[in-house]
Write a structure and sequence with these properties.
Blueprint lengths: L1 H10 L2 H36 L6 E5 L8 E2 L15 E16 L2 E10 L3 E3 L7 E3 L1 H4 L4 E4 L7 E5 H7 L6 E6 L2 E12 L7 E5 H8 L4 E2 L1 E6 L17 H8 L4 H11 L3 E5 L1 H42 L2 H9 L4 H38 L10 H25 L3 H7 L1
Parallel strand pairs: 4-11, 8-10
Antiparallel strand pairs: 1-13, 1-14, 2-12, 3-4, 3-9, 3-13, 5-6, 7-10, 8-11, 9-10
Length: 410
């Protein structure tokens, strides 16, 4: 009987019903789209931020920072507990050498590194690591080295040497000499512009340090740091340590890497890690606020539409009261209409919101979005909240209608 009355009440006012349904659908779609994006945006933004520099520095574990790491250990980085969070790494070997070009000589830092080196990891697929992976933001005039005797020169150093792509530079270190063909000039706005970059094996041979490296820069996906993440692991209980170790804090990932590389000390690059964490935290808060605002705005619109519709139903409600209907029965009838609108609006809003979320993901992040299973529940709850919150004031007004006065006015 209740369902029949509810259906008849909705169909007797098609204009008001469709308007209310439209508002519920829009509110549900907005909340669903924002919730769907929220589920993916932190991960995708973290991936985007990984293109702006490494966030973990690995150095030799010595009081004065001297000593070297072993190149043969580097593949172990992709075998740690957080191996899937490691987006890339690049080793460096530094030495102060005299570089000469166009009759000019400069004392400069000679940096041997990987540019794009394929490495085989036991039990894993082949991976490519190096500068091109962790520093795609480098602005390069020319190209990257493809041969052992090719090099990239920092922009500031290249200007002083008056060289560029196609030029030749000779590097001299403790009586050993190596000639390089310049294939690129890099501009970063940082210390890299003062350095001379060449393939790691060539620099190792020139410096007489085969198989050794000075440091490793690692780019890893991490979660924003919180108070627990900043706690000193040495003061934690066993349970807290396991929780910290199994959470992708930048400090926990660094600890994993440190355990994998012999004689190493890994530490976060806090300037980058802190900025990333703060940005992702604010982004999460923004998405929550936008979702709440979308629901609130839709509920306000529903309230305005329902108030207008209720004003035209004064006589109907007054007549039901005059015939013996109590407040509970009237509230049940009106809430039945709300629930029915919520079900219809929730299903339609879910489909529309899912489409909007996929559209935003493809246009902004150039990737597909896989909607989580809980998104449908979010859509239905949002639809019910929009309809219920928007109907509270009109419902209260309907329950306060005095039958005698309302029927007399009619």
């Amino acid at each position: 009987m209740l369902l029949l009355l509810t259906k008849k009440a909705l169909l007797s006012r098609p204009g008001s019903t469709l308007l209310l349904l439209f508002v519920v659908i829009l509110g549900t779609a907005a909340a669903t789209a924002l919730a769907g994006i929220y589920g993916e945006i932190s991960h995708k933004m973290a991936l985007e931020l990984r293109s702006y520099g490494a966030n973990i520095l690995v150095e030799p574990d010595s009081p004065d920072g001297s000593g070297h790491l072993l190149e043969e250990d580097l593949a172990r980085i992709k075998t740690i507990f957080w191996k899937h969070n490691i987006k890339g790494f690049a080793p460096y070997l530094y030495g102060a050498a005299t570089v000469t070009a166009s009759g000019r000589s400069e004392r400069a830092v000679l940096a041997g590194t990987w540019f794009a080196k394929p490495i085989d990891v036991p039990g894993e697929v082949r991976t490519v690591q190096g500068v091109r992976v962790i520093a795609p933001w480098w602005s390069l005039q020319g190209g990257y080295p493809a041969a052992a005797d090719e090099a990239v020169v920092g922009a500031a150093l290249a200007r002083r040497l008056r060289t560029g792509p196609g030029g030749t530079v000779t590097a001299l270190y403790q009586g050993r000499e190596q000639q390089f063909k310049v294939v690129g000039v890099v501009t970063t706005g940082g210390y890299e512009e003062e350095q001379f970059f060449a393939p790691l094996p060539t620099v190792q041979g020139l410096l007489g340090m085969e198989g050794r490296i000075s440091r490793v820069l690692v780019s890893a996906l991490t979660v924003p740091m919180d108070a627990f993440g900043r706690t000193d692991p040495q003061t934690m209980s066993k349970a807290d340590y396991e929780k910290w170790y199994c959470t992708a804090y930048v400090t926990a990932v660094a600890k994993n890497i440190e355990e994998a590389l012999r004689g190493s000390r890994a530490k976060p690059v806090w300037q980058i890690a802190s900025a990333e964490g703060a940005l992702l935290t604010k982004l999460d808060l923004l998405m929550v606020l936008l979702t709440v605002m979308a629901v609130a705005a839709s509920a306000t619109a529903v309230s305005a539409c329902a108030m207008a519709s209720m004003a035209r139903r004064n006589a109907e409600i007054a007549l039901m009261k005059a015939l013996g209907a109590d407040s509970y029965q009237i509230a049940l009838l009106l809430l039945g209409e709300i629930v029915l609108l919520s079900l219809l609006g929730g299903c339609a809003g879910y489909l529309l919101g899912q489409y909007l979320a996929e559209l935003v993901s493809s246009r902004v992040f150039s990737s597909s979005l896989t909607s989580p299973a809980w998104l449908f529940s979010v859509a239905m709850v949002s639809a019910f909240l929009v309809a219920l919150l928007g109907s509270l004031v009109p419902l209260r007004r309907a329950l306060l209608i005095e039958p005698v006065r309302a029927l007399k006015q009619e």
